[in-house]
Design goal:
Blueprint lengths: L1 E5 L2 E3 L5 E8 L8 E6 L6 E6 L6 E3 L7 E6 L4 E6 L8 E9 L2 E4 L3 E5 L2
Parallel strand pairs: 2-11
Antiparallel strand pairs: 1-3, 3-8, 4-5, 4-9, 5-6, 7-8, 9-10, 9-11
Amino acid sequence: VRLVESGGGLVQPGGSLRLSCAASGFTFSSVTIYWHRQAPGKNREWVSTITGDGSGEYYSDSVKGRFAVSRDNAKNTAYLEMTSLKAEDTALYSCYAVVSGNHYRGPGTQVTVSS
């Protein structure tokens, strides 16, 4: 099982980014994907969840209305579209999955929101 995030970078406040989580080693469409983030000196925070078939999407209050989660099961990839970015969105973003009872997390991709 492997999860690899990409798409992070430096963006100005109000800007947008799309993160990707490329998965391999399991039946992607059967697994719920979670997005988390961790800012320096802070605990990891749940951001969003998308169910295996994409029918269920959930967001933390801090990103609701600004972020959109999606997935392309044909490409074994999940996405996190982030808009109206704020300085407080600066963090290491990672995707997470539970596969056959085991927990997996990618190394993360850094998002920095700064002018």
